[in-house]
Amino acid sequence: MRILANYGHRSKGENYSVTLEMMGDASKQNIEGTIDELFSLAKQAVKRQIESRNPKEETKENQSTNSDSPASKKQVSLIIKLAKEKGRFIENPSSLTMAEASQTIEELINA
Hints:
The protein is α+β, with helices and mostly antiparallel strands. It has 4 helices and 2 strands, in the order ββαααα. It starts with a strand and ends with a helix.
């Protein structure tokens, strides 16, 4: 089986992108976890590239933008999906901030 994960980000007029590929045997039950892990690794790689350009500016910009902003629709739907899979109930996930939603997603994945 071949799994590709593409991640791109635009920052201050510059485009960053990463493509990760996994080949080999992956169990069908673990495909979603594998994909999530590949996207996470790709996102971290892009973040490192951006921070290496402007470490102080980007860090401040990302913290103020992401931490206090409401959770995205993708985050909320992922939280709902993971909570159902794990048999847990998350009260009003749409009221979470992006930072809280990211933390909740990480906890659900690791549960």
